[in-house]
Amino acid sequence: MTSTPQPLDFRSDTVTRPDETMRRAMAAAEVGDNVLDADPTIAELERRAARVLGMPAALWTPTGTMANLIALTAHLRRGDRFLAMRGAHVLHNELGSAAWLAGGMPEPLEHDAGPGRPTAEALERAIGTVGPYFTLRTSLLCLENTHNSAGGAVTPPDEHARLLAVARQAGLKVHLDGARIWHAAVALGVPPAALTVGVDTVSACFSKGLGAPVGSVVAGTPEFVELARRTRQMLGGGVRQGGVLAAAGLVALDRVDELAESHENARRLAAGLAEHGWSVPAPETNIVLAEVPDVPAATKSLASLGILAYPLPERVRFVLHRDLSAADVEETLYRIKTSRAKPGS
Ligand SMILES: *Cc1c(COP(=O)(O)O)cnc(C)c1O
């Protein structure tokens, strides 16, 4: 009898647990009441995140979902239409709050320039021209870099610039969902600020692969942040001594360069799965999407090997993160190989 193998959790890069260094920083954080006046550690994280993102100011939020909602609430009025990539987090994973709270009518853009991005021409067509008073007014473009459901796909700065030019020409505001902007920056070898050029607002997460248990930011002008602070309070996101959480974000920011290791592990996993006959495109960052004929059967068979993966339509998703090492990837491939598990069988 062999013992049950240790489960290897590839479901998301949100499954990481704070390590000793991070927990020590959290325990030692200087704190204050961030609703009454200010928490010094939250203030420090906001300053540092704004600088790294190349934005004038930033506001801490408990989640990326709240960060996106705050930005969309600032940009949209009822009767507005906003454009976002098909499968975007703001369209599929935020329970429609962009529509029912922020008040915008969503319109999906196709990934016709490659995973995660539209061509400038398609964007121009989708914006169209301003119609009569009884038609929707297209007022916002919402980008996502990296694009989660497209497999951690990266939009490079030149394509970003072309999309920005079209949106600006048509008078649209631009929000960037940068939950994993750190991953895009590391994959491209550019600073995160190179990927926010020209946007009005950007959101970013510290809890996606960087090891923080909680925390995001939404960044923009000081005027936007002033409004965003009111919206955050309205949504119940005004936490008091949040410095214990922001301290984790500061440690996370120190670790951005280490994401390269997760990207390398993702490439190795994808190559190994392909060797075993799985249909897997080469990943751009830390997300591996494997096409399988029967998703429930594939996730079940993987789970029986102690490998946790996330089911998507027609695909199984493996996300690499700092709690999965190169050795864990080899162990995963070994378990799949020796079990003779066929994809989807
Ligand atoms: C995870 C994610 C979010 C939301 O972050 P939460 O902190 O889980 O609310 C937003 N956008 C994208 C692309 C994400 O992957």
Automatic annotation (TrEMBL):
Domain Aromatic amino acid beta-eliminating lyase/threonine aldolase per the UniProt entry, residue ranges: 9-292
Pfam family, one: Beta_elim_lyase
InterPro entries: ArAA_b-elim_lyase/Thr_aldolase, Low_specificity_L-TA-like, PyrdxlP-dep_Trfase, PyrdxlP-dep_Trfase_major, PyrdxlP-dep_Trfase_small
Keyword Cytoplasm listed: no
Keyword Membrane: no
Gene3D superfamilies hit by this protein: Aspartate Aminotransferase, domain 1, Type I PLP-dependent aspartate aminotransferase-like (Major domain)
Keywords associated with the record: Antibiotic biosynthesis, Pyridoxal phosphate
Cofactor (UniProt): pyridoxal 5'-phosphate
SUPFAM superfamilies noted in UniProt: PLP-dependent transferases
Protein name (record): Threonine aldolase family protein
Originating organism: Amycolatopsis samaneae
